[in-house]
Here is the input.
Amino acid sequence: MRKVEHIKVYPGMKVNDLIISMGKAGVMQAGKLALAVDILEEAIKDKECKLFFGLAGAMVPGGMKELILDLINNKWIDVMVTTGANLTHDLGESLGYNHYQGNENMDDAELKKEGYNRIYDSLMPNDIYVKLENFIKDNFDELSKTKNIREFLSKLGELAPENTIVNACYKNNIPLFCPALADSGIGLMMWGQIAQGKKTNVNAFDDLKEIIDLAWTSNKSAVFYLNGGVPKNYIQQAMQLSPKNAMYGVQITTDREESGGSSGAKLKEGISWNKMNEKAKFVDVSLDSTVALPLITSALKDRLK
Amino acid sequence: MRKVEHIKVYPGMKVNDLIISMGKAGVMQAGKLALAVDILEEAIKDKECKLFFGLAGAMVPGGMKELILDLINNKWIDVMVTTGANLTHDLGESLGYNHYQGNENMDDAELKKEGYNRIYDSLMPNDIYVKLENFIKDNFDELSKTKNIREFLSKLGELAPENTIVNACYKNNIPLFCPALADSGIGLMMWGQIAQGKKTNVNAFDDLKEIIDLAWTSNKSAVFYLNGGVPKNYIQQAMQLSPKNAMYGVQITTDREESGGSSGAKLKEGISWNKMNEKAKFVDVSLDSTVALPLITSALKDRLK
Amino acid sequence: MRKVEHIKVYPGMKVNDLIISMGKAGVMQAGKLALAVDILEEAIKDKECKLFFGLAGAMVPGGMKELILDLINNKWIDVMVTTGANLTHDLGESLGYNHYQGNENMDDAELKKEGYNRIYDSLMPNDIYVKLENFIKDNFDELSKTKNIREFLSKLGELAPENTIVNACYKNNIPLFCPALADSGIGLMMWGQIAQGKKTNVNAFDDLKEIIDLAWTSNKSAVFYLNGGVPKNYIQQAMQLSPKNAMYGVQITTDREESGGSSGAKLKEGISWNKMNEKAKFVDVSLDSTVALPLITSALKDRLK
Amino acid sequence: MRKVEHIKVYPGMKVNDLIISMGKAGVMQAGKLALAVDILEEAIKDKECKLFFGLAGAMVPGGMKELILDLINNKWIDVMVTTGANLTHDLGESLGYNHYQGNENMDDAELKKEGYNRIYDSLMPNDIYVKLENFIKDNFDELSKTKNIREFLSKLGELAPENTIVNACYKNNIPLFCPALADSGIGLMMWGQIAQGKKTNVNAFDDLKEIIDLAWTSNKSAVFYLNGGVPKNYIQQAMQLSPKNAMYGVQITTDREESGGSSGAKLKEGISWNKMNEKAKFVDVSLDSTVALPLITSALKDRLK
Here is the structure.
């Protein structure tokens, strides 16, 4: 057995050195966080391994956009599944808007009057929808021709400004999925056009084949989940159907196992489903994602440069 | 100000009387639960009001199926949005399978060998997929013709055995939505057919128009969310776009506000988005859904009989 | 393996019947709650067994006082450990004050002006301290002579009004412990007298011997923890030192295992410490205590009448 | 309003620079963590201000010992309140033992056989009690003469090995309190001596006067709480009685407000009690302490060197 070596810090300490020190302590959530970095490092370095990244939560309003772009532009991830909300907020910012620092105890009726939509303590200007609507309207013809959501997002990435998640995935050839895209601002903007009688060809089931093929053809798979949700589950079921289930796994969420829901379910549970290999290296970290992701990304940059 | 009257219990006490006593205490989660029942009672009795019910979490494996059917068959709800998992588990049971009582510390590798998939402490026999696959195969032609997910689920309800959620919604003319249906066992079974070269016509965006129309044409709306997720968010955005946002709201979840995600966001936040009316009656209950739902349904049966 | 039988409810359903139905479902927190009632029922009926009850959290401001008195007056519990806060709030109410129904979003500066101290959504009038101070002053001589906290609380119970927790424990010969009594309003009132130069004889360690003797001389022990804290840990360490560790265990808390703290630690962990017998019947229920305690007490009244 | 500036990381990034970047994002728990560092920095630099530090949770088994010593030895804190468990584990390590890296799914019956007590995923060798018992026995005469818990811990600090929390507090003249000291291994070792007929003079209420005097004579106070518990509440009530309540506040815990308990109560609530000044700078951070404390201490070392 390894001793718990107490974490030591010093002036000018680097993030990666702190993570290494947390790993030598090796217990509690600090130890699990350090293990998460080790597992991701190994998975990324493993040439045979495809990393499936599932991203939920309000990560763009939470200031995480550049870190997500780091994962994509460094090609640390091979497949991405996310929520429509993150794509909407990201596209909105690229069209000229920002999120603002508020707090969770603000007067919501007052915010409405002033034109801000609150996301916990982050504020989105409501007029973001104006430019989003125009963007979708201007590009509706091209978008509507795509035959499934993965293709839709690829086309959106081609059309979207630089430095967006969709564009970065497009440029890096990283397949991007979003099963519940209708459940987002982008979905609403599509509705706005459809409500005027326009048509789309985007099939709800069709890209399942693509993600399952990606899992199926993978020699080795890794899964990295931030905040559970549909992105996690969509990857989990691709793993389940694949002959080669996940050999590496990292989950970051403060959702609880006890509710029985998929978001908080421990990765271990996936072994019974054939989603996770019983010999896999995996860890569940119970930590806020807006703290975990910067730490992880910063440490990975040191290790993978 | 009203006093906190201490809760009193006695032999043979009825559930509804306990809820009333919790309401007289009026504080902590017991007080909030009692308020939730009052709000739902009022919303259901309000003839002008449409109740939108969002259901996530592993509710069928959690033993909640009959209670969900109560909500539907009593027509207490007018619109339902749920996850593919609940529909899959429900359909699976109707085809002859059961879930079994396990525990969260079981050996998952052992469970896999024995053919059980673990959902926290509930066990699903893995061969449920055999009959599911046959069912979808046999009905693929009819299902594949539907033009959006809402229609797909209506057709599925028509074809499914009695006493399923989909069938109950179908018979009671309750529109049922599931934006992330691809992210479920039903989705996987559809993939199985599509992988063999079959085609579907199910559009990913198309039923957005329907749920927004339902919200738009509602004189008064109520929202009832169990466990957040896509079902909550999909209803929330229908409220957001509607001129008449929600006047009643009940949310049951143990997810946390602090992660910034939609599932744990307090209903109050919706006021800034125009999802919740600032004069609405609403309450957030931080309680496990498998305990909350039986209590609520039982009390409502007394009050609405 | 036992099937998950779906919970069914009907008009006029009794609480105990609902708990029985939850037990037949047997999964998720509803199943755990039902198991908790079964275990407590068995422990109480077991003539050889001493039940140690640890109570933390704001249970008196939360409307739980009568239920705690039920546990005591029915002699379902044999030993009680609690926090000073619960005893302070209870004594305060017995001197003529009430708690009031507020909400967690009230303006705290405003409340201060109006003389209310907020406990989540329960409000305590600040002038409760006036009568508390007088009560402690009038009884200081008798209280100060007691030689440890257990004796102090026994004397306080003798002197306190009827229908208080301390008085009920006194009358029913149930030893009552409160290791951190100084950390409470009662402590502050004692300080008020000591600050004027008075002395007490109350020893900080002395009653440890008494609780360990109670555990040591018990043929069989049961533990029942609400909300963790010092009360749980104080009982746990009595179990640890006893040759006969706990054979029954019920824990109700929403605190998390992941922080590593004692409050959220699973009962299973106690096996490694010799606190819990490895053959014990025990269950951890992740549920709000203000909902769990009324349900449990109500069901027990039916079963133990 | 300030924009949410997305967090950026780079190879070799220092912890403090990451915290600064989190502060520029300024939202979610990352933003709150950065604010916590700013507030602590300001409180520590404020010459008039006394910082009261409340420490609960399994911080020594969690590898946090050196960081706690940093807070003490740099005199960043002026008063400390903690749990007996942390002092016990720390003293145990100083007598030659270590904690070991385990995991939360280990077989507890097996661990018992092998002589390890589990604390989530940290393992304490059970024979730690042997040397602890000897240490307390050898020093019982001196310890037993002290007249309250604060004095007891000061004497213990004088007698304890270098590099312990108690010794560091002693050498730095930082008053150390532990209201529930009986509820710990040190308490048990005292019981071991008392059970043999020895006596102590340690009063349960007596040091309340000392902490209240410390708060009363403080021109300005700051509070820093890790993991709630009795340490938080004991400081809170000293603030409540003081004419000058807290002007700075930082709380780190994953406990929830919704249970109504003191540990998870938001700092804002303290305004109604006169514990927190309504003009105070304060923040609640919902984050695991074993990750938060290293980050905070590391950043403070850069800022306060």
Observations:
- Residues 28-45 of chain C form the longest helix (18 residues).
